[in-house]
Give the backbone structure.
Amino acid sequence: MSGPLEFSWLLEFSMKATVLLGAARVAAFLLRRSPADVRHRLWLAALFGVAVLALPVRFPQPVSIGVPVQFSVTALGGTIPARVSTGAWSMWSAIWIAGIILALGRLLAGMATVALWTRRARLMNQVLVSDRVATPLTWGVFRPVILFPACAGEWSGDQMEVALRHEQAHVVRRDWLWQTLANAMNAVFWFHPLVWLANAELRREAESATDDMVLASGVDAADYAEQLVRVARSISSTVPLAAVPMARRGILESRVREILDPLRRRGQASVVSRAAVAVFACVCLVPLLALQESSAGITAIPPAPVPPQASAQIAPAAAEPVRTVRPQGAAPKPGLAEKPAQKPEAVAASSAGVTNPRPLYQAEPAYTEDARIAKVQGSVKLSLVVDEQGRAQDIQVLTSLDPGLDQQAVEAVRQWVFAPGTKDGVPVPVKALIEVNFRLL
């Protein structure tokens, strides 16, 4: 994926992720009176939906073949040599990968930190206590660990029990697993602000849902709110990203207000609510996935004439005309002539039993002088049908760039030779989309 295609993919993905997360935000607002566990599942489904949008999931449609073409222009004028892109990383790739490395590095550093705290923790009153921990927290999925701060030694038995119930509720809900996956997605899609917002909402709703579980266990709301405030006051350092703490200063006020609200609906999401969240995610995802275009990566093949014997092997014999069989001695009906064979209809490459056509020879388009002087760059998208002989037919310009470059792209693709697509092993005409990128270097 080279520069223009890369940026185009990022832009298209960002727009679809914005639509999905925006719909989740509206749904969360409409569900503001519902239990926090319902909204937590909603944001979790939305974030996983964003991940699905980034996967190469496609609906059946014509195969799209991206053919980046670069042109090297010298200051002396003269000829313009053209070459097929080697797939080198562009600036967009470098920036994106750098951001992913930094964000994942922060997450892994947090995991290493809480693992070190766990190894150095000491057992006190049947709980692990660490001098480094500022608030009760939990981490891990297969063998979850709960750590308490050193100041927990001054808490009463009831206060210790409340804090322990809170962290055990996080363990039961598997909040560390979900938040870790959400943080990993944050690292991959760090450039999208709504992904950060969705991650923050996921954490906030997880804390609210955990508070509901603690209160449902019989803990007094006022005592619980007082315990949260006491824990928050003792926080003197940043909690690692790879831990699920009992209290965060940024959302403490809203949590206390919700805990003390007697009209607030609590409890866990019902089966109906979970099914509704799943249906909502599918309803939002299906149209967005349907808009995606199938993309097949093509390995750059240096232009070389195709041997005649290779062409003869991929071209099937010409179909004979269809003949009408009549009983011997019967005369043909007046006004009716024997119909010639109809041209087979092209099929979509993603149909069952269909293999995609594969370029064997790619002619290189020329950069017109007018386009070079005007510094025209961009993409020409063509639709065509690769017939049973592996030749491009019915070429049409879907996305125009420049009249001269459009014509050059059409003429070049007209000379291409493909290994034809097949259906159940038989060559058939296949619909295709080809995107030719013109770029001046």
Remarks:
- Residues 1-5, 58-89, 293-330, 335-339 have pLDDT under 50 and may be disordered.
- The first helix runs from residue 3 to 30.
- The radius of gyration is 31 Å.
